[in-house]
Amino acid sequence: ANLETTVSTRGTRFPRQDPNVAFRSHPDTLSFLNDLGVGVVSVANNHICDYGDEALVDTLRHLDDAGIASCGAGGSPEAAAEPATIEVAGRPVSVLSRVFIYSASTRGAGAGRPGVADHRIEPLLARITELREQGHIVLTSVHWGIEYGFDPIPHQRDQARRMLEAGASVVLGHGPHYPQAIERFGAAEIVHSLGNFVFDEPHEWANKTFVYIATLARDDGRVLESQIHPVRIVGGVPTLCEGQEAEEIADRIDALSRSVASRSPAELQATNNVYFRDIVS
After folding, report:
1. What is the predicted pLDDT for the residue at 271?
2. Rounded to an integer, what distance in angstroms lies between the CA atom of residue 66 and that of residue 134?
3. Which among 8, 129, 107 is positioned nearest to 57, based on CA atoms?
4. CA-CA distances (angstroms) from residue 200 to 77, 103, 131, 207, 234?
5. With contact defined as beta carbons under 8 Å apart, do 50 and 88 qualify?
6. What is the pLDDT of residues 111-131, one digit of tens each?
7. What does the alpha-carbon distance between residue 71 and residue 42 come to, in Å, rounded to a whole number?
8. In 3D, which of 186, 200, 196, 181 has the Cα closest to residue 256?
9. Of the listed ranges 36-45, 83-92, 114-123, 148-157, the one predicted with least confidence
10. Could you give the CA distance from residue 83 to residue 93 in angstroms, rounded to a whole number?
11. Beta strand pairing status for 223-234 and 237-240?
12. What is the pLDDT of residue 278?
């Protein structure tokens, strides 16, 4: 899962961060993730630095105390770039996490300064390949995209494909708050956006989402099969859908997945333009 909040009782809100979207949660709330069986979280997102160094360091410590592995941020560039590695069915599974969406509070880890991992693609690709050569199954968790949009950014779609070519089995995207397409390339998959989960927003499709499940081959990590379970979020609480509502969400994801590969160059460039105008405005 993507943990898009600090977990601390300390820290001071970054002064230029909008107070309406500056996130901090009490450490006791991690018991909820334990109850869900969440074993790994990505903390490479645009809110993990909302309450400064103290809260970031506390977040990593509280996750460790709760037995939840984390990746994507740390006390140094090296620590922030390290994967979270767990053993599943006798195989090491490593999750690498990066953030491509920055808020006012976001900053990279530096010498003696905590922060998020370096988001440049080349070091990430090299790390994926290195882990695969060491016998790990590799997943990447990336925070990116245009908020409240159904279309993946074309240049990030290319980046995701490069991650798969480097050896990742699945690329898990999040950040747009809306669910997006799922693409398959060979024996690997890209989930462009998982949408929200435990979140509270007024937009219809910010509250319609899914849980993604993939079965991976033990020997080489190829995706043997995958499925989604549609979810409706009510009052910040996710609930599995049934019947017509489940069909509506599943049909939307299917339509997005079928259309993403057939869009014209002009449509793709228009999406890129929206994104780049947004980040420089």
Report:
1. 75
2. 28
3. 8
4. 32, 19, 36, 8, 8
5. no
6. 989 999 999 999 999 999 999
7. 5
8. 181
9. 148-157
10. 9
11. antiparallel
12. 62
